[in-house]
């Protein structure tokens, strides 16, 4: 199960007329007036003070979790003039799985007047038994060793506008895991070290460039962020360690003027110094949106350094925007351990269906089937685009 980290914004990628656009709410209400002209300018439909809600129960299946049931709630609103301020959003989920995993995330992106500040909140609780496969790119599914633990994540960042599309800011990240138990022995886990509890706490510095005009479902634009995290023993962390994450995304409206998008995503996650706790190491599907590596079980590859690339083509299948589809391919590589050199790439790919749940913010339910090497495969459900 995945949850989105992007936030909707004030306008669509172009101020254009939306003719006969529909979402799942329209279908439920039976609004099928054939000749109704629903032509409106997107940037004038959503007004200050109005809150848009998307409430989506979802079911799915992944190798990580077995059968999944979730309730996904997203709200979007303007804090100020909608022509000058992006939409703020708050997303909450309750997720329960066949393997007795519980995830309760609360994520928010709040924009102040004229986009001067962007306040980002990522708070989550996990009760999360999950298999781990050791370190490096050569692990096998047969190397699985179950680790059970509880985890509280409190990540808070405030970004300040420098220019129209460039932001810089500071934050504080806190991750606490306890009742950590390894059910079966794995040589890599034993050699690296796994304690009964771990704590990572410290400051974060972030630079962001974002000229997308709709980041929940972009048609075009460019996004990049660089994040430097420092975990310090003097702040009660288990160990001193530092990491860098570089996140780059590019979107092309293709063909131009259509509702189709060609998107590229590069995500590089590197522990650059110190020794991070085992469960804080870069790992498949443990990016903030738990979106990376469709086609592989979450946690399938883990190491101090991870490189990732994905491309996706998004197509509108109906003129009213209700149904769409995607095709995607990705590749990931984790460093060998303890040498930290890269020698192997794990490819993945798949197809997906999109169902519009809010035509004003263009939020979709994403249902994807992905596959990887050696029979790895799974169904992935997300409220919002994967990236």
From TrEMBL:
The protein, known as: Surface antigen
